[in-house]
C-alpha cells in the first residue's frame, strides 16, 4: 500500500510529525514553556494553532498539489513522446 507513495508525501509527513515531536519534547522538558507569552498570547497558541494547524498544513497542501501537477505533466509529456493518447 505504501510502497508506491511519492517521496514528497513522506517528506511532508516527516515535516508535520517532526513539528509535533519537536514541540512535544520541548513542552515536556521545559517547565512552563507552553504558557510563555509571545506577541501577547501564550506561546502554545502561536506554535500550535497558528503555525501547526494553519501555516504548516497550508504549506504541505501546496507542495503536495504542485508535486502532483508536475507528475501529471511529466506523465503527459512521456505519453505524447511515445505516441500514446
Provide an overview of this structure:
With 85 residues, this protein is mainly alpha-helical. It has one domain (7-82). The protein has helices spanning 7-29, 43-82, and strands spanning 37-38, 41-42. It has a two-stranded antiparallel ribbon with strand order 1-2. α1 runs antiparallel to α2 (43-82). The model has no long low-confidence stretch (mean pLDDT 88).
Task: Give the integer mean of the pLDDT values.
Answer: 88
Strand content: under 5%
How much helical structure, as a percent, in the residues? over 70%
Total discrete domains: 1
Overall 3D geometry? elongated
> Strand tally, please?
2
From the helix content, strand content and strand pairing, which structural class follows? Answer: mainly alpha
Radius of gyration based on Cα positions: 19 Å
List keywords for this structure.
2 strands; elongated; 85 residues; mainly alpha
List the helices and strands and how they pair.
Layout: H1 7-29, E1 37-38, E2 41-42, H2 43-82
Please outline what is shown here.
With 85 residues, the chain is mainly alpha-helical. The chain is 74% helix and 5% strand.
Amino acid at each position: 500500500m505504501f510502497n508506491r507513495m511519492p517521496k514528497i508525501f513522506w517528506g511532508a509527513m516527516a515535516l508535520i510529525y517532526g513539528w509535533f515531536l519537536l514541540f512535544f519534547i520541548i513542552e515536556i522538558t521545559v517547565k512552563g514553556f507552553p504558557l510563555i507569552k509571545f506577541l501577547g498570547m501564550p506561546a502554545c497558541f502561536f506554535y500550535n494553532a497558528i503555525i501547526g494547524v494553519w501555516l504548516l498544513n497550508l504549506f504541505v497542501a501546496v507542495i503536495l498539489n504542485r508535486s502532483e501537477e508536475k507528475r501529471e505533466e511529466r506523465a503527459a509529456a512521456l505519453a505524447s513522446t511515445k505516441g500514446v493518447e
